[in-house]
Amino acid sequence: MTAVVPARTSAELIGAEEPVLAHNYHPLPVVVARAEGAWVEDVEGRRYLDMLAGYSALNFGHRHPALIEAAHRQLDRLTLTSRAFHNDRLAEFAERLAALTCLDMVLPMNTGAEAVESGIKVARKWAYDVKGVPADRATIVVAADNFHGRTTTIVSFSTDEVARAGFGPFTPGFRVVPYNDLAALEAAVDETTAAVLIEPVQGEAGVIVPDDGYLAGVRELTRHAGCLFIADEIQSGLGRTGRTLAVEHESVVPDVVLLGKALGGGIVPVSAVVARREVLQVLRPGEHGSTFGGNPLAAAVGTAVVELLETGEFQRRAAELGGILREGLESLVGKGVVGFRSRGLWAGVDVDPALGTGREVSERLMREGILVKDTHGSTIRLAPPLTVTAEELQSALHTVEKVLARQA
Ligand SMILES: Cc1ncc(COP(=O)(O)O)c(C=O)c1O
């Protein structure tokens, strides 16, 4: 007979994690047990509006019916082959993803950091094979305050000491310049430069939107210098900013686009390097790979994600709801909000530090049924699923106003 284990409360589950889980996160004290659309429910049945959406991994909301159906259908047929064999889902995924992004070829991976690592490797290989940079001399220019993931190579060019300290020695070959500064970028690029790697909007830094003309300037500069433009759209891409890709706000097509997060529909980790043929065709069998990259379950969910984006509905929603978000935040400036930046349905909100840290404000919002995440200092990030309704968004903004007013 199996013993019946009584259900544990949120507090018990949080306490149970403490001795057995690495402390590399500091989650809000909420234990989610189920979710649907823009709403999640905790162990005790309390409901919260999810205004973080898994850092944009849940752009289509929790358990979008079309994505869940695609996953179920695939689970019943085939889940993994490895790339030792072909599978019958990968070609369609790659064709449709390349078409969606106006590029030619796809390298499927799993997590965002893996896509970034893969993009770096491909850029270096391209620099040696195509551009003719002498062996082991290739450089990649990146921006200060970047966030591209957590691997040893990626933290090597982070400017965040918390992300780096204790993890050296670091990978050489990167030059860091200020974000949103074309003159500094131009000065850093030379004949050894394989690529410029930037986020079109810096997410973790606090949703930093560059000046108009910056992305077009990076495109122009990299073309002129004969190096690649790699856009990390892992957080900014796939509808979040009101366009399929954030670079589209300046009608720019990079040489390489890195995708992740929402590409897996909030179901499975799916990432990809999408690039011009001249770039991705530098890879030969055996030079790069991943056991799970391009697996049929990932390809089926990824194809269903692309299908949702092909309708344009989510990009439209993000743009329209983004207007409501911006208006709402403008009305809060001076009422506990000292400033904000937004693009589409995505905002970094600087709360008056006198009212508390971003963490404290996030905890207060949680108690009022709104889930958000702080980033640095007193900044909170708002990135609800693109399926959120105007009423839900307005009600969340009203709660933010109430919470800040109470503290003022
Ligand atoms: C722009 C950007 N690149 C890369 C990553 C890393 O993605 P992952 O956490 O899936 O490795 C993130 C994650 O937040 C990101 O925002």
What structural keywords apply?
16% strand, 7-stranded mixed sheet, binds pyridoxal-5'-phosphate, single chain, alpha/beta, 408 residues, Aspartate Aminotransferase, domain 2, 15 strands, 4-stranded mixed sheet, Aspartate Aminotransferase, domain 1
Walkthrough of the structure:
The protein is an alpha/beta fold and 408 residues long. It folds into two domains: 10-63 and 313-407, Aspartate Aminotransferase, domain 1, CATH 3.90.1150.10; 65-310, Type I PLP-dependent aspartate aminotransferase-like (Major domain) (Aspartate Aminotransferase, domain 2), CATH 3.40.640. It is built from 14 helices and 15 strands. The protein has helices at residues 10-17, 53-56, 65-75, 90-100, 112-131, 152-156, 161-164, 182-188, 214-225, 277-280, 296-310, 313-332, 358-367, 390-407, and strands at residues 32-36, 39-42, 47-50, 105-109, 139-143, 174-177, 193-198, 228-232, 256-259, 271-275, 337-342, 347-351, 370-371, 373-374, 379-382. Strand 11 (337-342) and strand 12 (347-351) form a beta hairpin. The longest helix has 20 residues, at 112-131. The mean pLDDT is 97. It binds pyridoxal-5'-phosphate (PLP).
